[in-house]
């Protein structure tokens, strides 16, 4: 198969390939960019594979960066663009079910294509627009099939992350997983235990953001990969519910986690524990916990000043969106934001009076009582019983709060 006119991204990179070839080596576009070119999808990076060794590439180009020299990758900088150029290589070992123990540079393109995960990812394109397709990848692209290169059992044993990649590509492309490849995933799903949670998380989030997320998530459940992800086992029915709701819905990361937490019936504490297991950052955990509160408030028709006070815009937007995807409406997003923006203060620190002020001006001993006074003062301000002004707050505390406090 020959491509007559290449898109601009490839044309821009053409002279990188020409330079390598005129130095006496081979060079090809490979992997995802060739797949996406044939599928007419947007390209996000152009990968080049070559028979030249990294040191040889560095001699040919004036500006290079050693991106992953051990694995054969050098980045070439040219005309404001950068290209990752990786030496043809084979891999062996894989004792940890993920990284190869040994990478060997080779001079044959065919050896390099053989180590790639799926036939649709094992295509190469030469400078003349000729596609090199040693594993019937074009046929699988046309049939919308994800099929392992070689023996799927061996391939997933070498690198268990490939199983998550299979369901992720299924979600992004809407492809089916070929039967033997599917069965091999089912056989070896348990090997996911060997993979770092960060890698699984990246694939899971990409899956949930895929255009065909409903399909990808269903495959993740059916292959049993879901059972080997932290906190998912025991919630497979909830996951099917999620799959049934997310067709054509675009979610960001906070929304994805909120969707999961809500449909798993998680409390704030459960969510915290769950997201820690997934090694989600503290900032994102906080945002998800807040978004979950919004979902529950929408569901229970209960929105109070106290609830709003502890929120933030990002979580409100996420929570309202997740509630909408899950099929219930109460307040519109506009109404949430209007009420949120209308709060005189958005957290305790914005109060015009501090604990020290209260101790000094009202002659109260430091201790837990101060915290209680501050909380009540915040409550009074957001419920608009008093303005957030130092003198007014001081009188309000004297008149309304101190008397009510029980020691
Ligand atoms: P995208 O960048 O859109 O996520 P991609 O196919 O380009 O998809 P990358 O992770 O960028 O995926 O990898 C580039 C290429 O490297 C793949 O197309 C595939 O040929 C090969 N590859 C990546 N990861 C693996 C793996 N775990 N096992 C075998 N080959 C892999
Ligand atoms: Mg890529």
TrEMBL record:
Which residue numbers delimit the CCA-adding enzyme C-terminal domain? 252-396
Q: What is its EC number?
A: 2.7.7.72
The tRNA nucleotidyltransferase/poly(A) polymerase RNA and SrmB- binding domain extends over 174-232
Can you give the residue ranges of the Poly A polymerase head domain?
Answer: 27-147
Gene Ontology biological process: RNA repair; tRNA 3'-terminal CCA addition
Q: Which PROSITE patterns match?
A: PROKAR_LIPOPROTEIN (PS51257)
Q: Which reaction does it catalyse?
A: a tRNA with a 3' CCA end + 2 CTP + ATP = a tRNA with a 3' CCACCA end + 3 diphosphate; a tRNA precursor + 2 CTP + ATP = a tRNA with a 3' CCA end + 3 diphosphate
Q: Where does ATP bind?
A: 32, 35, 116, 159, 162, 165, 168
Q: What class of enzyme is it?
A: transferase
- Keywords attached to this entry: ATP-binding, Magnesium, Metal-binding, Nucleotide-binding, Nucleotidyltransferase, RNA repair, RNA-binding, Transferase, tRNA processing
Which residues make up the binding site for Mg(2+)?
A: 45, 47
Q: Which cofactor does it need?
A: Mg(2+)
In this chain, CTP is annotated as bound at: 32, 35, 116, 159, 162, 165, 168
Question: Does the record bear Zinc in its keywords?
Answer: no
Q: Name one GO molecular function term.
A: magnesium ion binding
Give the Gene3D superfamilies listed for this entry.
1.10.246.80, 1.20.58.560, Beta Polymerase, domain 2 (3.30.460.10), cca-adding enzyme, domain 2 (1.10.3090.10)
CDD domains referenced in this protein's UniProt entry, alphabetically: NT_ClassII-CCAase
According to its UniProt entry, the function of this protein is described as: Catalyzes the addition and repair of the essential 3'-terminal CCA sequence in tRNAs without using a nucleic acid template. Adds these three nucleotides in the order of C, C, and A to the tRNA nucleotide-73, using CTP and ATP as substrates and producing inorganic pyrophosphate. tRNA 3'-terminal CCA addition is required both for tRNA processing and repair. Also involved in tRNA surveillance by mediating tandem CCA addition to generate a CCACCA at the 3' terminus of unstable tRNAs. While stable tRNAs receive only 3'-terminal CCA, unstable tRNAs are marked with CCACCA and rapidly degraded.
Entry similarity comment: Belongs to the tRNA nucleotidyltransferase/poly(A) polymerase family. Bacterial CCA-adding enzyme type 3 subfamily.
Mention any additional remark.
A single active site specifically recognizes both ATP and CTP and is responsible for their addition.
Quaternary context: Homodimer.
Question: What HAMAP family does the record point to?
Answer: CCA_bact_type3 (MF_01263)
Name it: CCA-adding enzyme
UniProt organism field: Candidatus Gallilactobacillus intestinavium
What gene does the UniProt entry assign to this protein?
A: cca
